[in-house]
Amino acid sequence: MSGVAPVVVRACRGLLDAEAVSSRRLATGSRSLVYRVRLADGQGVVVKVYAATALRNALTEARVSAAAADFVAVPPVLAVGLVPSLGSTALITRDLGPVTLEQAVAEGRVPYRYALRRAVALLKAFHRIPASLPVPRRPFADHVASLARRCGSSTLLHIEPALECIASRISARRSVWCHGDVHFGNIVIAADGMDHLVDFPHIWHGPPEFDLAQTLTMTNALAPDDLHAVKRHYGTPVDTRLLTALVAFHTLRCWVHSTPHSRDQQLWAARFRALAARQPELFRNPARLTAGRTIR
């Protein structure tokens, strides 16, 4: 079992009664790790391990996955529970393969606009999950407070007009279970060609515009024709003003969470300034932002 992460060994033994013979880390989050694992019987699985301190854990994600399965395709859950001796929780699902919609777009196998349509279709279906889903609810103010803790309240002043717009319009919108992180990388294309939605730790109860704005932001679908296409494919009426204000919020959040001095941070800084130039009414002092000043 050389090269197999110890936490993977414990999770597979304790929850599947199986031996892991290889593992490769796929993703690292602030409170979770994801591994692609090969078992001794040849079966491929994905093991997601949550830290004991995580607000949402594997048990919550399993409940969401079970509820979502009635509306969208999701990877089958094989086991979930506490990892023996660690206090962490783990979710083990069948491995549907390495191909994501993001990869298919990058390789030119799926046109970008068609991929965006597929992502919106998954969102529309996900938003049909009943309100009775047993997951703790979280007000939008918590998202703002979390961002403020990360970057400081002075940074939030840059999008104060956008936040005021959100506050004035969000309560009038219908609430749905928002996935919170639908982008091309979180859509796995199985061998049968079906799109499967993955990664549910960010679910919360809010307006559908929150999810739509997040998807627009993460896929850089911010041109007017992209916005119109998303609204058309979603079908249900969308509050465009709220949607664009939430795009400003998500863009700042992506910038703040990017690695300092990285290419990713430069990309989000450029997108933030481009958005300020295109929709200055959502920003405080947009001219200073578009002049290239750094947010502090």
Automatic annotation (TrEMBL):
Keywords: Transferase
Domain Aminoglycoside phosphotransferase: 24-237
Database matches in Gene3D superfamilies: 3.90.1200.10
Molecular function terms, GO-annotated: transferase activity
InterPro entries xref list: AGP_Transferase (IPR051678), Aminoglycoside_PTrfase (IPR002575), Kinase-like_dom_sf (IPR011009)
Keyword Iron: no
PANTHER family: AMINOGLYCOSIDE PHOSPHOTRANSFERASE DOMAIN-CONTAINING PROTEIN-RELATED, AMINOGLYCOSIDE PHOSPHOTRANSFERASE-RELATED-RELATED
The protein's name in its UniProt record: Aminoglycoside phosphotransferase family protein
Native source organism of the sequence: Streptomyces himalayensis subsp. aureolus
Highest classification ranks of the organism: Bacteria, Bacillati, Actinomycetota, Actinomycetes, Kitasatosporales
